[in-house]
Prior knowledge:
Chain A has helices at residues 13-30, 38-51, 53-58, 65-68, 72-90, 101-107, 111-131, 136-145, 151-169; strands spanning 5-6, 175-176. By secondary structure, chain A is mainly α. Chain B contains eight helices and no strands.
Amino acid sequence: MEEERVREAPLGWLAGGLLLGLAQIVAIALSGPLGVSTQFVVADTQLLEATNPAYVASHPLIGTPKYTELGAGWWLVVGLAVGAGLAALATKRWRVATTHVWWRANHGNSVGKRLAVAFAGGFLILLGARFAHGCTSGQFASAWAQLAVSAIPFTVALFGAAMLTARLVYPRTPRLEG
Amino acid sequence: MDITGFGIGLLFGAALFLAGLADPDKMVGTLRLRDLHALRVIVVFVLVGLVGATVLDAFGLAHWSVKPAAVASILVGGGLLGVGMGMTGYCPGTGVACAAGGRADAAVSVLGMLAGAFAYILIQPAVAGPLDQVWNLGKTVLPETTGIPRAVWTLGLALPGAIALWVTRPGRPAQRPTQPAPAA
């Protein structure tokens, strides 16, 4: 049986990068730079408001309208999910998956282990993003577009930690297409 | 519903998927420096955004949202986010996009992100708030701190970046075999 390979992206690097850059330009022209991670706190705030409104009102961070109200940033994340889903359908790449090629090359078809790592990783991703005042959208792509000083320590810490971790979790390289 | 936000999200989500950033294989490949597609996409994304923002700013049309350079907090947070990204191949935006594309592990990651956000809410008053005050340079931008104009910074980053991308560009697609090689 032929060894499976990592698939090419639908668009080449230049076209893909230009399309993302266009999204950033439209965002900065119409409302504000791209950002995603704040909305996870907004989602939690909505749940807390339904169950424990007194806690929300007394909280120094989430008691403010930025978190209690659903604004442009919230609808951006809803649009993001719809846009990605439509793009996956349009390119005939929508399919249910639990693991990816790099995972299978290093850990076989261990679905349970992948889901546990996915949950723990997601936890660290958002906890870290809020400490850092933004994620790869807001504190990296958007911070560099604005030439914010905050982009420099973020870039160093993010890619340093991510490259080291990926080396430990995915030591074996699968076959790559192209 | 905010139509402008939704429309921007629609474009951003489609772009993340089509460019291959919403793909854990492409992200891990780039973090392992074995498959530089995603790295090249990210560099183009950042440089085009930078040039576009500078042009919009020159006409007074840019909507800014500069974040505080709370260096201690950013180093801790960037490190945690990096560990999570290295484990999963996702970040908040691409995790949502991959879940929408059918990846169940990404949907589980999104649940983990909601739990991580909840943990942040709980520890923000006692831990994150005070840490924010450590080595905090404020909401500042490089043109302000260095006295070098935005246009000079933009050209100084975009020009060498564009040259580096061009010099290291991968071979033309025509040079690659279009059919898989027959089994030996």
